[in-house]
Design goal:
Elements lengths: L1 H38 L9 H11 L10 H27 L12 H23 L2 H36 L1 H4 L2 H11 L6 H17 L11 H4 L9 H26 L7 H18 L6 H24 L3
Length: about 325
């Protein structure tokens, strides 16, 4: 009976995740567009606009460019959706099934999470490269360069809480998302330390880049390369790309809360989530777009050294 019940819980949780996260992501997309419009003294779209846009794309014809690698071109958006679905399952399951012995997740799931987050930019790179469009190729080159830029500080930021937890609970617990959450439930959020603040700042900037938001919207830059990586996409594949990006808009702030701010098991997590979303939108609306060289210098020569300093502070317990 318990096995049957657990199986149904897993199925229901999967369905809620697959349906709920995209819906919340599209709502956040509307919030972003509405706030951006208000900042620019415009009225902004109605709340249902992102849903209408997705529905319109799903009903439109999918056009595959002549000379494109058809199978790869059409399969690329599925890679991004699959990656975000796995991330959603890992984050939600690890937060709401955490027990004292940290057995709610498997050793190394945080490494799996890191790879799953990478599937979204990889899907854009694959799709743009398969399209055969020179403008999309420029976007793919920028996407790859930007990914190589922000991934180093992102990994350093993740290592900071891992090191802090490993010092008291061992490496096995530190490499579990459930272990990180359980540690914070017992000892308080890791954010409330010098190294934790450093990690949070780094993750916030990398979230901006992972979402393709200003000042890091370089791969799509409409005014320069006509949407770049997605210039040849239409219909359902374009809708899937937008859904994947919307899911990332939900999951990246949730990941930050899980990693450093105590997890998602209390109602305060909603306020934390909204605060992070507000910071992301404000950063988007108050900065100009950087060039790819400026972005690389920022990530490699500013954030990465700061991340190394944070890692050293974590080693000495600060």
């Amino acid at each position: 009976m318990s096995t049957w019940f657990s199986g149904w819980r897993l199925v229901v949780g999967f369905l809620v995740t697959v349906i709920g996260v995209p819906i919340v992501g599209l709502v956040l997309t509307w919030v972003d567009r509405f706030v951006s419009a208000r900042v620019q003294w415009r009225k902004g779209p109605p709340f249902y606009q992102p849903f209408a846009d997705i529905l319109k794309l799903l009903l439109k014809q999918t056009i595959v460019p002549r000379g494109a690698a058809r199978t790869t071109f059409l399969f690329a958006p599925v890679v991004g959706i699959a990656g975000m679905t796995l991330v959603a399952m890992l984050i939600i399951y690890s937060n709401f099934n955490t027990v004292v012995n940290q057995q709610s997740s498997f050793i190394g799931d945080i490494i799996v999470l890191l790879y799953c987050f990478a599937l979204v930019p990889i899907s854009f790179i694959i799709g743009a490269s398969a399209s055969g469009n020179p403008v999309a190729a420029v976007g793919a080159s920028r996407e790859m360069t930007l990914y190589l830029g922000y991934e180093l500080p992102f990994v350093l930021a993740i290592l900071i809480p891992v090191v802090k937890v490993a010092q008291q609970w061992g490496v096995a617990s530190a490499l579990r998302i459930g272990g990180l959450v359980a540690y914070q439930q017992q000892f308080g959020p890791l954010l409330y330390s010098i190294s934790g603040v450093i990690a949070a700042v780094i993750v916030l900037f990398t979230i901006q880049a992972k979402l393709g938001y200003v000042p890091f919207d370089i791969p799509e830059a409409e005014q320069e390369i006509m949407s770049g990586v997605i210039v040849e996409y239409s219909g359902a594949p374009l809708a899937l790309f937008r859904i994947a990006r919307a899911m990332a808009f939900v999951l990246l702030p949730l990941f930050l809360i899980t990693l450093l701010w105590g997890g998602l098991r209390d109602w305060w997590a909603l306020l934390k989530f909204l605060l992070i979303v507000v910071l992301i939108v404000l950063m988007k609306n108050t900065n100009p777009r950087l060039t790819i060289h400026q972005a690389l210098r920022f990530f490699w020569f500013i954030l990465a050294p700061i991340g190394i300093i944070g890692l050293v502070l974590a080693f000495i317990g600060l």
